[in-house]
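Lab notebook, design round three. We kept the backbone fixed and only want residue identities now. Task for the bench partner: fill in a sequence for the structure below.
Input structure tokens:
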């Protein structure tokens, strides 16, 4: 708590928390990625939020691995011909400024007005590598988001949707509805997202529930079906990368976590075992 109330006030403040992990990684000599804007975007409030979160050091590998995997999936899909990236709940992501993207690529960030205003202010004077647009929209407004998706879909040949750090805050029926809406525009061909198991969801709720409940941003989504959750809603898993296995390959795990990573795991249905993955979905669910 600070003098004005809780540090983590709403779901947008979680973007400052995430930016601090990117800042810390970027300052390592062996960084997996470089985000020179992350500490500026997190600001002093982000530093204080990070300092108050339980288990912040033990979970750093997961935040860093997630960013690394999203970076890889995005650059791969752009290289394969994606001409539009739609970043939903973009928060303080600075990928249009830090990734090697073609100048012809169109990148559209969608988020609440306040967080996008803050980002624009912090990045004023910086030049993105591609054609960047920002849309101020509450994704909970179903009519408005459907209209946006339809409009964007008409302007692209092959669009990539990314939802980093969004779905876990939505109830399962809300995720299903979003998936169905994203499956409507024919040009929305691919979708990068992360998913956690029910077991990991419960662990995260126990560890961080008090802080997130105060911010009215509880963790809600950890489907037992795993990536298969999206199949009935129009999307098929094309590639699933385990966060734990990836982090082991990157050399970012403690001894205890390295031992855990040796246990067999499934990229399909999930249960009580902690698991998380970053997934590339493609059109074609039934």
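Proposed sequence:
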């Amino acid at each position: 708590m600070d003098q004005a109330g809780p540090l983590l006030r709403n779901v947008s403040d979680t973007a400052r928390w995430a930016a601090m992990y990117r800042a810390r990684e970027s300052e390592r000599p062996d960084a997996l990625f470089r985000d020179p804007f992350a500490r500026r975007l997190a600001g002093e409030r982000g530093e204080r939020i990070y300092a108050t979160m339980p288990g912040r050091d033990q979970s750093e590998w997961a935040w860093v691995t997630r960013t690394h995997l999203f970076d890889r999936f995005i650059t791969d899909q752009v290289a394969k011909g994606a001409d539009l990236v739609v970043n939903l709940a973009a928060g303080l992501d600075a990928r249009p400024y830090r990734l090697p993207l073609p100048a012809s690529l169109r990148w559209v960030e969608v988020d609440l007005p306040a967080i996008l205003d803050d980002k624009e202010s912090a990045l004023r004077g910086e030049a993105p590598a591609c054609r960047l647009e920002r849309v101020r929209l509450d994704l909970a407004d179903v009519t408005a988001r459907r209209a946006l998706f339809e409009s964007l879909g008409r302007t692209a040949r092959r669009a990539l949707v990314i939802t980093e750090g969004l779905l876990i805050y939505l109830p399962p029926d809300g995720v299903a509805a979003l998936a169905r809406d994203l499956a409507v525009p024919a040009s929305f061909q691919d979708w990068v997202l992360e998913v956690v198991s029910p077991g990991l969801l419960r662990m995260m709720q126990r560890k961080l529930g008090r802080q997130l409940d105060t911010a009215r941003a509880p963790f809600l989504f950890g489907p037992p079906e795993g990536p298969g959750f999206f199949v009935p809603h129009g999307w098929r898993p094309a590639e699933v990368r385990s966060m734990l296995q990836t982090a082991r390959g990157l050399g970012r795990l403690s001894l205890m976590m390295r031992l855990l990573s040796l246990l067999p795991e499934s990229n399909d249905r999930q249960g009580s075992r902690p698991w998380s993955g970053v997934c590339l979905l493609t059109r074609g669910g039934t």
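Keep this in mind before ordering anything: The chain has one domain: 61-283.
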